[in-house]
């Protein structure tokens, strides 16, 4: 079909929109690239996970965040394999469960995650929680270092580590975590820990980027959303992107998953960013990593 060079045909239009919405990547401290936007799968039941992840991949997501604790690694792997995308085009993160804080158990747990996902070496594997009174996260980390060196894991990192946990880890082990995945949203901005991560070459990943829905009724965010003709969720996610953090909002709704990925064809002004910065309320939603020691039965 002839298309006038000045008029976009349907296919061109799709490519044009996708080009505007290209997801940037961040290079981790071991040279591996991670897409700055991913899709979170916490609380997506296993029977719904394959469909949700396939829909996310169709919408353009190329990074999926799962965990042993979520019970849906198998379905994440099935979706990636059935998507028709090359394995190297999709970045997959999983996390060591809290009952695996023992070097031998951790090695078995890595093998189990690898088997469940069925995608070869996992792109990024995290110690999910430091659990300061359960085993010793330094020993657990050394076990992951071994798995990283052997090539079973492409990259390793931590989650919910406070500065003190990181200081102990950095002083006693060799591989610097590539990421620290922590709770961050406009009401809990974590400035000192994000600065510590940055100063040590550790990328901050922000979990609960829209505060699990808590920020959606905020009047300041609503006003900014009106100014840029976007939703509150998009404004909040865009704020994270401009701060340079990695995010993976979760949604069980295909429409909201698509909404959450349309972040790369608009920008917040410095003034709008400053107004969101001013919303910090030190309001943590999840457990405090210094005192959280929960282990599944
Ligand atoms: N490392 C850790 O300890 C840890 C802890 C928690 C989470 N995470 C990871 O981080 C990911 C994201 O965090 P999260 O799932 O806790 O919270 P979140 O992404 O901040 O929020 C998810 C909630 O917001 C709703 N939502 C999503 N998009 C929306 C939109 N555009 N408009 C209105 N509501 C919307 C979702 O409902 P619907 O599904 O109905 O849309 C869901 O209730 C998780 O999925 C998981 O991968 C890691």
From TrEMBL:
PROSITE patterns: ALDOKETO_REDUCTASE_1 (PS00798). Keywords: NADP, Oxidoreductase. The record marks 95 as: Lowers pKa of active site Tyr. The keyword NADP applies. The active site is at residue 70. Substrate binds at residue 128. Residues 37-280 form the NADP-dependent oxidoreductase domain. One of its GO terms (molecular function) is oxidoreductase activity, acting on the CH-OH group of donors, NAD or NADP as acceptor. It comes from the Bacteria. Belongs to the aldo/keto reductase family. This is Putative aldo/keto reductase.
């Amino acid at each position: 079909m002839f298309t006038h060079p000045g008029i976009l045909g349907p296919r061109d239009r799709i490519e044009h929109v996708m080009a505007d919405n290209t997801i940037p990547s961040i290079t981790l401290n071991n040279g591996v690239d991670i897409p700055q936007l991913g899709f979170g799968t916490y609380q997506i039941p296993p029977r719904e996970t394959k469909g949700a992840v396939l829909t996310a991949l169709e919408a353009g997501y190329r990074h999926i965040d799962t965990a042993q604790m979520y019970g849906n690694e198998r379905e994440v792997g099935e979706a990636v394999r059935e998507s028709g995308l090359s394995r190297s085009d999709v970045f997959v993160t999983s996390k060591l469960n809290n009952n695996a804080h023992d070097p031998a158990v951790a090695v078995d747990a890595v093998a189990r995650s690898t088997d469940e996902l069925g995608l070869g070496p996992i792109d990024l594997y995290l110690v999910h929680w430091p659990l300061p009174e359960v085993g010793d996260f330094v020993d657990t980390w050394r076990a992951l270092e071994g798995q990283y060196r052997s090539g079973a894991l492409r990259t390793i990192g931590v989650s919910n580590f406070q500065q003190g946990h990181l200081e102990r880890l950095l002083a006693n082990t060799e591989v610097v975590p590539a990421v620290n995945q922590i709770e961050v949203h406009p009401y809990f901005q974590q400035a000192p820990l994000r600065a510590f991560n940055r100063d040590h070459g550790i990328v901050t990943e922000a979990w609960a980027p829209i505060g699990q829905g808590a920020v959606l009724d905020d009047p300041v965010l609503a006003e900014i959303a009106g100014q840029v003709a976007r939703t509150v969720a998009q404004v909040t996610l865009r704020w994270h992107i401009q701060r340079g953090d990695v995010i993976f909002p979760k949604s069980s709704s295909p429409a909201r998953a698509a909404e959450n990925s349309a972040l790369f064809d608009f920008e917040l002004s410095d003034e709008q960013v400053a107004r969101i910065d001013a919303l910090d309320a030190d309001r943590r939603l999840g457990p405090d990593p210094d005192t959280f020691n929960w282990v599944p039965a």
